[in-house]
Recover the amino acids of this structure.
């Protein structure tokens, strides 16, 4: 064990440190990631057969009365379990960074009781992002309306059209940049809740917001470098999915447009994505834990405090 | 727990040096930046070729040499050759000229060195650049870096090189210290026992003073109090001198300790 805590890290070193944490404790993290993914899978396994049952006329519309509520409850529960397990990985990784490693059992005893707060935090974030998107959509709609007003009274149609086109492009770029910035500001929401004591769902969102302020560009760059490292796994997943898709289309002698075939292909792709995701998800959680540690060192002198 | 691999190197002069290896993150970052610069270089060259600035002169010459029949093949072969030379040349040029660094490696604060710690030469840089496509193919290189103890890709094994982090020299303080701290430091040297302070405590105080401007106000207050309390006990000072803030006290302790804990002559 190193005696001196890690000092603020460069972009490359954040990724290297996170990868090292991931590699050295892969079996532990994979176990948690499998559990998380199974919870994410459960509601879909219940909801997915419903359209098929419809298709084959085995059930009537009445199944919706049971299917929708049961599906929704499972969806919410699965989602909560999923985010809690991901947060658990971040807590474990942070423990190693701060030189205070915990066992899975110890970390779980802190994280699992907060399950509904994790859900609330991610749901609140979803609502905020959704709200911002709607707001932006409204602004665009108003602009289009004003534009069409000008359009109807203007003489020079070409000029108005090209101006509107230019405005549309600018609006699109602004929207994409703003959305990315927003997502980056919210990218750490589950980490403070998993590590710090007595935070509420909204407090953990504010924590993510204040910690990431001024570090957007660095986090963005870290995510890009990290994504590049995961490229081999992503490509492997892609190749495997297209291979299986090819085999299935060759073997099954049915119309390629048939709904069942499409559904099977979708399911195969989805399951492969989930299997490979089990390998990727812990890496992202260790990345987030390392970013969190790094920013807290820079803004709160965490490394100096730990050294004392 | 050490998150970064370290190597010990014995130089030809039998001096033992220790380096932290670059790590997959910094190497990926450097490669990404280099590929961007490299693509821009290539794009500019291609544009020049297409615009005929270069193209006209040498394509006329080429046509005269090979006749119009095999011209197209020759033309593309030449383009391929240019592509190859820029690819290999970019990395060789910079690594040789900048002592093992490229623009990307500079930004990632990493450097290529020989296995024995000497700077790389033309030979090592060329071998590394020639094997780069093999390493990139099927991600052989990245996988070897991620899993190997010495983080060497094929090119590193063949050329006998290592990629290490630039050692950050611990320079003299690059933070402002107030005038009041200097006089307080002199007083401390006479009244307190600075030798009671551990090197780790001193390092913590230096880190705090260096980075305090970027800290949240709450955290700043908390840490300065923590450090003050610890330093006071260590140097055997019972109470703070009148009207001295925590920051001023820490600055003075820093200065006094730096003086070796002894009164200036």
């Amino acid at each position: 064990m190193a005696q001196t805590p890690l000092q603020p890290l460069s972009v490359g070193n954040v990724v290297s440190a996170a990868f090292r944490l991931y590699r050295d404790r892969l079996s532990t993290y994979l176990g948690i990631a499998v559990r998380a993914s199974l919870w994410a899978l459960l509601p879909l396994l219940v909801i997915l057969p419903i359209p098929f049952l419809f298709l084959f006329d085995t059930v009537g519309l009445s199944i919706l009365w049971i299917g929708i509520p049961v599906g929704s409850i499972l969806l919410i529960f699965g989602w909560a379990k999923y985010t809690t397990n991901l947060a658990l990985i971040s807590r474990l990784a942070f423990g190693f960074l701060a030189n205070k490693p915990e066992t899975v059992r110890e970390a779980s005893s802190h994280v699992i009781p907060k399950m509904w707060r994790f859900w609330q935090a991610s749901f609140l974030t979803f609502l905020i992002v959704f709200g911002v998107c709607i707001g932006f959509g409204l602004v665009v709609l108003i602009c289009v309306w004003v534009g069409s007003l000008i359009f109807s009274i203007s003489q020079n149609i070409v000029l108005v059209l090209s101006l509107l086109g230019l405005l549309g492009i600018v609006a699109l770029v602004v929207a994409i940049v703003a959305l990315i910035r927003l997502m980056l500001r919210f990218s750490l929401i589950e980490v403070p809740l998993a590590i710090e004591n007595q935070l509420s769902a909204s407090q953990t969102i504010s924590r993510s917001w204040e910690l990431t302020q001024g570090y957007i560009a660095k986090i963005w760059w870290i995510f890009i470098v990290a994504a590049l490292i995961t490229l081999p796994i992503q490509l492997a997943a892609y190749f495997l999915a297209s291979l299986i898709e090819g085999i299935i289309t060759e073997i099954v002698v049915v119309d390629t447009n048939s709904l069942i075939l499409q559904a099977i292909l979708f399911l195969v792709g989805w399951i492969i994505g989930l299997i490979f995701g089990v390998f990727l998800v812990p890496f992202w959680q260790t990345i987030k834990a390392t970013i969190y540690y790094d920013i807290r060192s820079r803004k709160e002198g965490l490394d100096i405090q730990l050294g004392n | 727990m050490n998150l970064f691999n370290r190597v010990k190197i014995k130089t030809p002069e039998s001096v033992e040096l220790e380096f932290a290896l670059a790590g997959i993150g910094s190497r990926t970052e450097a490669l990404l930046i280099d590929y961007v610069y490299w693509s821009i270089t290539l794009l500019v060259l291609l544009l020049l070729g297409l615009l005929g600035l270069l193209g006209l002169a040498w394509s006329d010459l080429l046509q005269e040499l090979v006749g119009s029949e095999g011209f197209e093949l020759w033309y593309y072969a030449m383009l391929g050759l240019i592509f190859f030379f820029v690819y290999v040349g970019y990395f060789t040029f910079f690594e040789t000229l900048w002592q093992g660094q490229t623009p990307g490696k500079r930004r990632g604060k990493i450097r290529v060195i020989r296995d024995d710690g000497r700077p790389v030469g033309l030979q090592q840089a060329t071998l590394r650049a020639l094997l780069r496509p093999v390493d990139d193919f099927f991600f052989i290189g990245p996988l070897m870096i991620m899993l190997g103890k010495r983080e060497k890709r094929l090119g590193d094994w063949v050329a006998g090189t290592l990629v290490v982090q630039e050692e950050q020299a611990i320079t003299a303080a690059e933070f402002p210290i107030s005038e009041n701290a200097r006089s307080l430091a002199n007083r401390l040297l006479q009244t307190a026992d600075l030798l009671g302070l551990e090197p780790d405590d001193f390092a913590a105080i230096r880190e705090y003073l260096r980075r305090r401007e970027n800290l949240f106000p709450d955290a700043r207050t908390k840490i300065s109090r923590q450090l003050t309390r610890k330093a006071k006990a260590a140097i055997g000072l019972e109470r703070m001198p009148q009207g001295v803030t925590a920051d001023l006290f820490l600055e003075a302790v820093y200065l006094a300790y730096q003086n070796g804990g002894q009164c200036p002559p």
